[in-house]
Amino acid sequence: MAILDVHDLSIRYTIGRGTVKAAEGVSFQLEKGEAMGLAGESGCGKTTVALSILKILPSNGKIINGKIIINGVDIVPIDDAKMRKDIRWKVVSMVFQGAMNAMNPLYKIGDQIVEAIKLHEPDVTKREAKERTAKLLEMVGIEPERADNYPHEFSGGMKQRALIAMALANNPDLVIADEPGTALDVIVQAQVLRLMKELKERLNLSIIMISHDLSLIAEVCQKLAIMYAGYIVEYGDIVKIFGEPVHPYTVDLIESFPSIKAEKQEMVSIPGFPPDLLNPPSGCRFNPRCKYAMDVCKKEVPKLLETSKNHYVSCHLVKR
Amino acid sequence: MADLVMKIENLKKWFPVSLGFFRTVFSKEQLFVRAVDDISFDIRKGEIFGLAGESGSGKTTTGRLLLRLIESTSGKIYFHGQDITTTGEEEMKVLRRNMQMIFQDPYESLNPRMTVGDIAAEPLRLLEKSVDPGEVEKRVSQTLEDVELTPADEFFFRYPHELSGGQRQRVAVARAFVVNPEFIVADEPVSMLDVSIRAEILRLMMSLVQKHKGSFLYITHDLALSRHMCDRLAIMYLGKIMEWGDAEKIIFEPLHPYTKALIEAVPIPDPTAHRAATVIKGEIPSPVNPPPGCRFHTRCPSYIGDICRTKEPQLIDVGKKHFVACHLYGSEK
Known about the structure:
The structure holds 2 protein chains of 2 kinds.
Chain A: E1 4-15, E2 18-30, E3 35-39, H1 46-54, E4 61-70, E5 73-74, H2 80-87, E6 92-95, H3 109-120, H4 126-139, H5 156-167, E7 174-178, H6 186-203, E8 206-211, H7 214-220, E9 223-228, E10 231-237, H8 238-243, H9 248-255, H10 295-299, E11 304-308, E12 311-314
Parallel strand pairs in A: 3-8, 3-9, 6-7, 7-8
Antiparallel strand pairs in A: 1-2, 1-4, 4-5, 9-10, 10-12, 11-12
Chain B: E1 4-16, H1 21-26, E2 32-44, E3 48-52, H2 59-66, E4 74-79, E5 82-83, H3 89-96, E6 99-102, H4 116-127, H5 133-146, H6 152-156, H7 165-177, E7 183-187, H8 195-212, E8 215-220, H9 223-229, E9 232-237, E10 240-246, H10 247-252, H11 257-265, H12 306-310, E11 316-317, E12 323-324
Parallel strand pairs in B: 3-8, 3-9, 6-7, 7-8
Antiparallel strand pairs in B: 1-2, 1-4, 4-5, 9-10, 10-12, 11-12
């Protein structure tokens, strides 16, 4: 059984000027021990989907349709108290974006991790929590004595490691990492990615890695979902998607990554910019930027179809 | 040499560290952050020169020193053969017409209370006071067209908050190019933008550089991009240049262990690629008290012994103007 089954999820934000259609019919599954990348440009809805899995959407955000099934239980109808008691951090946890600012500067690193443990498992004594914190820090490659440091005494890479330790505090099955390593230098970034890979193997963790950087996802993940303007446009096995991308957006996105190894080439970019989700284009939301757009693309939203095993594409170019 | 736009000799910038009242009064020692510590290089006409390294390596400080946005501690900066470290403020203003900067963050580098037209016109009004208003408008419109903010009259009266990140960075590019500068410092101009629009902005800057026959100092931490952008590349670490030369050479035949480590750490957008087994440990040390000898020796995977700890390697030419500062390749002379 899949550990996470997101089915036909739609999310809206209500703002002064109207309704933002942030996610539309998003579906994907994640098995135990599997890592999936969720990629797309800023504003495509990737963080929204992640927040909805923990049910910590901002107060103006609402799940209007769909199911989020974690370990066989649909969490959409579950209330906040129960989420906090049973799901958050024990089953699903998150490494928030911006390692530099995600911690409280007034508390010691160790105390912040102890707080996470005690909040979700009130039976644990303070002493046990401290011992666990030391182990967690060691696991992510920080000397346990550094638990008494404040966040400003940590470098960027160490803060990112500490945040990962915090996400693992209550032994979750699934960790969502929002843009890990994007604010870090390449060498430190490589260290953090390596750590995530190791932890995944060692703890049999499932990971959802959110990033706009496909090259980071390619380092860690086996599965990939490409989002564009609230829709998943291509989804499946990462090697297949990189090998034979089908959706015109995926093709352009992969090509827009300069590789350090490849021949010196013209840099490719996708003309235009993502649509305003207050008032998205009808039909396929990529049609105004798509070089293959046909009449049907403006009228009908394409369905996500399986083009080959473990490779799904939502595009009218795909013959059904 | 006639074709050099910039020549930098032994440039240093040490920022004094403030220690608080008591230690300032009662202690004689003064600590410095050695942000840039004795670097020399040159930039040719029409070339894109890349300056790469981790954060804290001193690349941004170098960029600012070259435009004299901050004053150097010592060293010489020659712009077309003229040493600009000693020129007066008035003369510097005249020179700045030929030197402009594009900043990293288009969300912070544009004044939110000014319209796009005013932002792009400001360098003209400040640096070329004689230009009359009609002429200013014409040149600004032309520049906005150049950066593909079309139709220009539509963007002229918009405010930065009405623009996307990519459009804002185009405004920043327009502001730099409106005075037809010969030399531009671009400090991580695309690191805040989405990958899908980075290439477009970079291509735009490259075509403008070619059109104006200007030179470019491109500051970046992204080696994959710099390889596609730059003619020559310098790798900085803790205020020192570790290696510099032709970009192709540096990327494909790196010599310095630090350059090698940097290149190996670049993620490859291919799930089937296998990464080299070693990732160097640790992070960049503090520039207040840099390691003695070679500054990289604390993290170096090819540490060869005491010489690395005690003697600072000098940049030596290993052929075809490819310079490297490492004891593995012998010492000078």
